[in-house]
Amino acid sequence: GENVEQHPSTLSVQEGDSAVIKCTYSDSASNYFPWYKQELGKRPQLIIDIRSNVGEKKDQRIAVTLNKTAKHFSLHITETQPEDSAVYFCAARRVNTGFQKLVFGTGTRLLVSP
Amino acid sequence: DVKVTQSSRYLVKRTGEKVFLECVQDMDHENMFWYRQDPGLGLRLIYFSYDVKMKEKGDIPEGYSVSREKKERFSLILESASTNQTSMYLCASSNSRQGIYGYTFGSGTRLTVV
User: Fold this and answer.
1) Residue A44 Cα, gap to closest chain B Cα (Å)
2) Above 90 in pLDDT, residue A52?
């Protein structure tokens, strides 16, 4: 089955810096890769996702890149702000091949210092 | 806006008690999931269900069971609570419609077993 590894486990940056979180996956048939943000005491929420037919997707200050050959994908946050502080989870799954569940990484705690 | 509601935010139970955690979603989603979240271990799947009365074991089903008698409700049962089941429990749902693959999470139930 699918296995997703996520690094780093913690990341501290200064406000305004960029942050990059990386994930690798094992199942070459996975083709959907979402990222979730979980603020302290709140539920995980989907912030961006990418399908394997594209290499990059952007939404304002966040972007996700995908390298299918290497089986890794990354979350990039530019111009970080204190409200970006949260735990971020990556995930992977197959779609359009019957029921397949998301497999999550272990999470990255991002701390943005003012 | 999809809502996934977990009946309790905080719960304290005694060792050996039978514990019920309830989850209700209001958007007619076919799929429902129970995760536990522990520091450093990320989101681990306990059980999931892709239809009424259907259930599948996840990665850590031992000590748990589930019930899905109605489409909107998915219950997690701890048959005899133990201290190592102290954790944050997250329910999630998703639908199987084409093009929609992400999960929507509930706010979580923090269970303490004493």
Assistant:
1) 6
2) no
